[in-house]
Amino acid sequence: MPLANTEICLFFDDGNVLNDNTIREKQWQNLVGNYFSPIFGGEPKIWGDANAQIIKDFKSKGVPQLIHINRQKSHHEFMEMFIEKWINEMFDFAGVERPNKTQYKRIYYEAAHFVNLRIKAAFPGVIDTIKMLYHKGFNLYTASGTESIELQYYLEGMGIKPFFKKFYGPDLINILKVDDAFYKAILKDLEIKPNQTIFIEDKPYYLNIAENLGANVIQACLTGEIKPQFPYVVTNMKNLPKIIEQVIDKGKKKL
Fold this sequence. Notes:
The protein is α/β, with parallel strands linked by helices.
């Protein structure tokens, strides 16, 4: 017997699925200076340039090499290392004396809170689509490499936080989004089967992992950067509900 909508879980990646990373990165560059400059001194633009350089270095390695190098670490161990690296590079680039290391986490999360709530980078149709899927009875979650607290800030700024049940976030399961362990941990945490799930993600690397576990997948090709490689593809978020129905109809024998 086919599952009802209330038994189906939809998992959304954030970057280039809910939000356009190109737009978001430019806004981050402007906003992060507005946080750092009044507190620590230095020109806002310099702080923005610092963050832009850090992100450029991070992205230049494809599926972040920094994560893969540290794949044996727990997420919490990785974040401690990443926050220290980010703070050090930000302050060094800006030419401002580094704060005491005991303040690093507070500074990082306060900056994220300040910036993320103010970001306006949602793809057209995303907000209305999330509301529609919620009212259709689907269970909505995130499945992102970004921490749950930062995801909540983004979605709160978008006005759609209340429509999501949980924000995965590798911090919730203490496993980096690197391989199938991330997805297995989410399924275990929710006590659901792979065929109850639909993952909406842009990167083929992660889509293949989810699909190999038996999950249903929809590839988000909203930026034109990645060519469609999967049977179900969304190029306009307004069309996502129809595509989800197609996935469900085709899979009724297993859903």
